[in-house]
Specification:
single chain, 158 residues, alpha+beta, Ribosomal protein L11, N-terminal domain, Arc Repressor Mutant, subunit A, three-stranded antiparallel beta sheet, two-stranded parallel ribbon, elongated
Length: 158
Amino acid sequence: MAEKIEALVDGGKASAGPPLGPALGPLGVNIGQIVSEINQKTKDFDGMKVPVTIVIDTKTKGYDITVGTPPTSALILQEMGIEKGPGSNPDAVDVSLEKLVKVARMKRSNLLAITLKAATKEVLGTCVSMHLTVEGKDPREVQKLISEGQYSALLTDE
C-alpha cells in the first residue's frame, strides 16, 4: 500500500521538522535522505514555497518525490524582485507585461489555458487579487487589450 504525503516547503530549505518530519516519521523511512533529495530538487525555487508530493511504498520503504511549481503569486513576486505585494495600495507596485508573460510560460503546464495568450490572461487575474498594476493599467484592462489583439507580437506561441 502506498502512502501519499503532500506538503508546501521552502525551496531548498526543507527540514525534518514540520510539516515533513511528523508525516514521514511513522512510516519508518529515512527522513534525512528524503529531505536532502527534496532540497536538491527545489533549490532553484529558493525563497519560495514549493508544493511537494511524496509517495512512499510502506512495504519496501521506497519513495518517489514530485515537485510542483510555486504558486503564480510567488513567481510574480520573484520576477518583480520583491518579497510581498503592496496590499491595499494598488499604486505601490507596477509590473511589466513581459515579466508576466515569462511567468505564464513557467506556469503554462499547470494552467487550464491552451494558448500563451490565455495563460497570460490567467496570470493577469492573479495580479488583480494581488493589487498590482501592469504598465500603469489595471490588469483587467490589459486582459481586454489582449482580447482585442494588442500585444500579439509578445504573446505568440513558439
